Amino acid sequence: MKTIKGIYTILLFGLICFLNLKAQAQPNLEEQRKRILDFKIGIIKERLHFTNATQEQNFFTYYIQYENAKIENKKIMAQIRKEKFNFTASDAELLAAMELLMSYQQKDLDIEKEYQKKFLEVISVRQLVELYRTEQEIRKQLLQKLSENE
Questions:
Q1: What is residue 62's DSSP assignment?
Q2: CB-side exposure of 118: number of CA atoms within 13 Å?
Q3: HSE on the CB side for 67, CA within 13 Å?
Q4: Is the CB of residue 62 less than 8 Å from the CB of residue 122?
Q5: What rounded mean pLDDT belongs to the chain?
Q6: How big is the chain by its Cα radius of gyration, in Å?
Q7: Helix-helix angle 91-122:53-84, to 10 degrees
């Protein structure tokens, strides 16, 4: 009886430690995403030269929605790759997983198209092109920082 109680105590302690570590890791990821978004917003504000505060506010309302939609879609694609792309699956299951992944890649493109229209409601075409250029430069900078940290 004491042995079973001891085993349950150890398992419970291990579970609590695991959940605690997981809870600590999650805010760090969210904190990193927030820092990256803040970094992006700062550079975008600098580069797009908004005509007034209303234009800027309306743009960033859409931009944050856009970023969140892209992040959620990327999470799903990563989950599909992680869970469904394994070599223990049958060829049919792998093919189905690839088709599912492609549907989310298409959704990513659909998000781009949807928000391009929304962005053009509040900024000019030239500002939109500058946004795309700026985002590409930001990606390069982030990848460079990441490679420096490794």
A1: H
A2: 15
A3: 15
A4: yes
A5: 85
A6: 22
A7: 180
Residues, the chain, total? 150
Angle between helices 91-122 and 125-149 (to 10 degrees): 130
Whose tokens are 């349950």? That residue is 8
pTM attached to this predicted model: 0.75
Half-sphere CA count of 107, side-chain side, radius 13 A: 15
| Burial (CB count within 10 angstroms: exposed 0-12, middle 13-18, buried 19+), residue 58 | middle
For the stretch 76-125, pLDDT in tens is: 999 999 998 888 889 999 999 999 999 999 999 999 999 999 999 999 99
Chain position carrying tokens 């900078």 = 141
Give 100's contacts (C-beta < 8 A, 6+ positions apart). 80, 84
Neighbours of 139 (CB within 10 A): 11
